[in-house]
Task: structure prediction
Amino acid sequence: MKSLLTGLWVALATTGTAFAEDLKLAVTTSFQNSGLAEVLLPAIKEDTGLDVQLLVVGTGQAIRLGEAGDVDAVLVHSRAAEEAFVAAGHGTHRREIMYNDFVLIGPAGDPAGIKAAATAADALARISDASAAFVSRGDDSGTHKAEKRLWASADVTPAANWYREAGAGMGAALNIAAGMNAYIMSDRASWLNFGNKADLALLFAGDPVLFNQYAFLPVNPKNHPHVNAKGAEALEGWLTSDRAQGLIDGYQINGETLFTFNATPAAQ
Result:
């Protein structure tokens, strides 16, 4: 299913790799936009010899790439989709690695008044009541899936006159929101690493429903014997190691931590 291979490949050159093949890892645009990959990939190569190539897409497409056997593993952030992937036999297991949170961004003047909201659902209801411009990723990503759950919890069906689906990754969607001076939901890491903030500001955060867990899922070699299962096992071991914890917990922008390591002690 080569037609699924649409996205941005990010590769590091390698010498003396410990594995016969490169390791192909589908990751979310939010992970790539955070800048953390630039910290982790050189350390992975140094410690394991693996040449990890990232295919940067939304969670939904990352899952489909895993189902097709076009990657060796996926690192995504939508638990329901991840558990369905494993239950269907496409992945061997799900391993939690790290988390951050979703935040609501909007015009610094906050015309919908979401700073005063009690909950994330209340914040979205205020945006709807004000018919304030809102940009959705609209791309079946983990962020988009979480956003749709929040609209449902707010008992709101977004209306076309103020709601725009970008069909794009996190960085591109943030750029659209900045250009429109609109509200948007982002993961905190992408927002902190975003350079074109214009008049936007972080207006709402802290609701437990905005928790954003990332997990690693190796593709099942029983379905796709060609996948680099040995490499995926080595990468998982590294991602749950003390070295990974130090780099993940230590990664900051302007003094703010972007991710928190919480790898589970054993594959589940």
Summary: The first strand starts at residue 8 and ends at 10.
